Amino acid sequence: MNNRIKELRARFDLTQDELAKKVNVRRETIVFLEKNKYNPSLKLAYDIARVFEVTIEEVFLFNEDHSD
């Protein structure tokens, strides 16, 4: 699963730390998300989408290949 967190952070002029504080996680979690090293919980995905005022699908790009 890929995501657009870094792009959306830039659009909203937010640092990784600022986004982390808004969604109650550590900055490292945002780093791992941006590097596609971590898949968020549904709640975290929802919270991130709310910060950016978009849908979860607009932040997280699901891979259609189900062989993972």
From TrEMBL:
<keyword id="KW-0238">DNA-binding</keyword>
<dbReference type="InterPro" id="IPR010982">
    <property type="entry name" value="Lambda_DNA-bd_dom_sf"/>
</dbReference>
<protein>
    <submittedName>
        <fullName>Transcriptional regulator, XRE family</fullName>
    </submittedName>
</protein>
<feature type="domain" description="HTH cro/C1-type">
    <location>
        <begin position="5"/>
        <end position="59"/>
    </location>
</feature>
<dbReference type="Pfam" id="PF01381">
    <property type="entry name" value="HTH_3"/>
</dbReference>
<dbReference type="InterPro" id="IPR001387">
    <property type="entry name" value="Cro/C1-type_HTH"/>
</dbReference>
<dbReference type="GO" id="GO:0003677">
    <property type="term" value="F:DNA binding"/>
</dbReference>
